[in-house]
Amino acid sequence: MINSYKDLIVWQKAMELVVEIYKLTESFPKEELYGLTSQIRRSVISIPSNIAEGSRRVSRKDFRNFLMIAYGSGAELETQIEIAKKLAFTRMSEFTAVDNLLCEVMKILNKMTHNLN
């Protein structure tokens, strides 16, 4: 039984992703602090935030809508990570944990939104 959004595996994984993104972006160029670094951090924070907000809504439809917003933020984050890779802001090996977690979160969100139809 789920008593809180904190019990949701997808929220827990999304929170792990936030930590990994913050670690990753610490090594980005300082001139990107108000550019791509800031944008990446906003995108990743949006994922668990929308999961939490949606879980507190009354209807399944509202919850699904917030999960879809979280999924959209994940797609935005995927794109931003690809940009950071192309710009070689850090070693490619540094992206592994982020890539794996993001993939897992996106799969879970996709499955959850389909199950809430």
Give an overview in words:
The protein has 117 residues and is mostly helical. It has a single domain, classed as 23S rRNA-intervening sequence (de novo design (two linked rop proteins)), CATH 1.20.1440. The protein has helices at 9-25, 36-55, 60-86, 96-115. It is elongated, with a radius of gyration of 15 Å.
What percentage of amino acids are in beta strands?
under 5%
What is the CATH third-level topology name?
de novo design (two linked rop proteins)
**Integer-rounded radius of gyration:** 15 Å
What is the top-level CATH class? Answer: Mainly Alpha
Biggest sheet record:
none
* Morphology: elongated
Decide which structural class fits the backbone: mainly alpha
Q: How are the elements arranged and paired?
A:
Blueprint: H1 9-25, H2 36-55, H3 60-86, H4 96-115
Helix pairs in contact: 1-2, 1-4, 2-3, 3-4
Summarize the structure.
By secondary structure, this protein is mainly alpha-helical. It has four helices and no strands. The protein has one domain: Up-down Bundle (de novo design (two linked rop proteins)).
Question: Features of this protein?
Answer:
single chain; 117 residues; mainly alpha; de novo design (two linked rop proteins); 4 helices; 72% helix
